[in-house]
Amino acid sequence: MNVTDYMQQVGQQARKAASEMAVATCAHKDAALRHIADQIEASSAELTQANALDLDAAETRGLDSAMLDRLRLTPERIAAMAEGCRQVAELPDPVGEISDMSYRPSGIQVGKMRVPLGVIGIIYESRPNVTVDAAILCIKSGNATVLRGGSEAAHSNQAIASCIAKGMHAAGLPTQAVQILKTTDRDAVGLMIRMPEYVDVIVPRGGKGLIERISREATVPVIKHLDGICHVYVDADADLAKAKSIAFNAKTHRYGVCNAMETLLVHQQVAAQFLPDLCAQYLTHGVELRGCDLTRELVNDDRLLAATDQDWGTEYLAAVLSIKVVADFASAIEHITTYSSAHTESIITENYTTARQFLRTVDSSSVMVNASTRFADGFEYGLGAEIGISTDKLHARGPVGLQGLTSEKYIVFGDGHIRV
Questions:
Q1: Buried b vs exposed e over 401-413: b needs ≥16 C-beta within 10 Å?
Q2: What mean pLDDT comes out for the span 73-79?
């Protein structure tokens, strides 16, 4: 069977399974998640063996240590995958929730019901644990899913697929509600993102190049974010001790994540007092600093490099930070508006009015007051888990959890009502 025929078959199976998943009870879905957890634990040896094949191939291909680490399934990571299944089983089921019921002058009662999106295509790279995370969120939210992992994790993903299929079967749910593509043909991705008759939404998880390609070529709606150019603005009315702790955490807690701060903005009234000590702490921690002219003058350290215009629009995902001293609140807002990727921005201030103005003015998917940007995360927001972050404005925005994998439809109750 060629790849086109194969993808047609996958799409047809997914659409059929989506109809069954949409009416599956919460009890059945939760049972499936717990059975999947049991299967993962029982198959630990098989998962490790399959993962070893992927690791050997990756080393032969010369993949770097960071990629190998993301690919590796340790006993701890396998246990975490199983625990993740059980945690999602404990989350409230959004499907079928009815809200906003009201009587209209005609006598009919109108409200909304939350429903699954249908078939969700998820395209991702490297990490086999994403296979489990994506599958269980789609199961809990009543969707079918087609998963296309990276070729470097092909053996691991198929071993995981077996665990998921057994768990779904044990719960009496369609095994084809979760399909992990068996082909590594790159054409499969191109076909999947142009199958609106079978796929309702695409979620890409990976590098900027992958997401740009999918966004450009897809005829199916895409939930995505391209960059995480996150800002922290230290206001003139900031508690500087609080600001120092937050700014340090936002950059150094983890470097290669989309919610790490990439640019620090500091009001000129507090810059001389605030920046020298903080920059010394960054430099001691191994962070490369790139600052505006005034920043370099105030810090007076040869290790602080001159920032370029390109730096303000760069997501480093590394131990690199851009710093700019701004004249006032309006200048900070102008900088964020110009360079932000609409992911996450935070203001550090004790001025309630300024904080409220920041929340109203900044147009990002997460806007914070006196908190590290590292909190922009589904688990931290109480979603239990997330399938990704969206910086789009339609449907889902910010961390996308179970509710983000559903939509709403209007429901109407009448009693023989006719329109006159």
A1: bbbbbbbeeeeee
A2: 95
CA dist 139 and 162 (Å) reads 15
The Cβ of residue 378 has, within 10 Å, a number of other Cβ atoms equal to 20
Tell me how far apart the alpha carbons of residues 314 and 323 are, in angstroms, rounded to a whole number: 12
Residues with Cβ within 8 Å of 148's Cβ and at least 6 positions away in sequence, in order, are 121, 122, 123, 124, 180, 181, 188, 189, 192
d(CA 3, CA 189): 10
Q: Which residue has the tokens 């989506």?
A: 18
CB 83 within 8 A of CB 133: no
**Largest interatomic CA distance in the chain:** 81
Helix, strand, or coil here: 143? Answer: coil
pLDDT of residue 382: 85
| Partners of 323 in beta bridges | 264, 291
pLDDT digits (tens, 9 = 90+) for 207-261: 788 889 999 999 999 998 888 999 999 999 999 999 999 999 999 999 988 999 9
The first and second tokens of residue 203, run together, are 């979620």
Q: The dihedral of CA 369, 372, 377, 383: what is its sign?
A: negative
